[in-house]
Amino acid sequence: MINKNSSVIAALKARQRKDELTQVELASALGIHQAHLSKVLAGKAPLSSKLKAKVERLLQGGSLADASLENLEVELIQALRSSRTFRALIRAAMQLHRRQEQ
User: Fold this and answer.
1) What does the pLDDT read at residue 1?
2) Distance CA 82, CA 80 (A)
3) Would you say 30 and 73 are in contact if contact means Cβ atoms under 8 Å apart?
4) Residue 67 near residue 57, CB atoms below 8 Å
5) How far is it, in rounded angstroms, from Cα 14 to Cα 4?
6) CA gap 68, 77 in Å, rounded
7) 15, 34, 63, 71: which one has the fewest Cβ atoms less than 10 Å from its Cβ?
């Protein structure tokens, strides 16, 4: 069976060679573990739609720094959402907003 994402994977490998990146560096920029990247590049794991979107952004001229910043933003949002203090702050802000609307 021919992998429908083989051209995306081939382009990612070419970008890796061009930029002289290790799998660890590339995986970090994409927000995944190196072991998973290795399996994806070898065709042993599927390329998810979420990962494919990240790869395509990177291939369309995005820099590794941009990808790393995006991953940092996602991690920050996840940390904030899991913070009790942050949730309490949001609840208080929403209550204040509702009072002002009345």
Assistant:
1) 36
2) 5
3) no
4) yes
5) 17
6) 14
7) 63
Which of 61, 58, 6 shows the shortest CA–CA distance to 27?
58
Q: Scan for tokens 């995006």, then name that residue.
A: 70
Please state, for a pLDDT cut of 70, what percent of the chain lies above it.
86
CB 4 within 8 A of CB 33: no
Reported as a single tens digit per residue, the pLDDT across 16-28 is 998 888 999 899 8
On whether the pTM is more than 0.85, the answer is no
Q: How far apart are CA 56 and CA 87, in angstroms?
A: 34
Say which range, 14-23, 60-69, 81-90, has the weakest mean pLDDT: 60-69
CA distance 56 to 17: 16
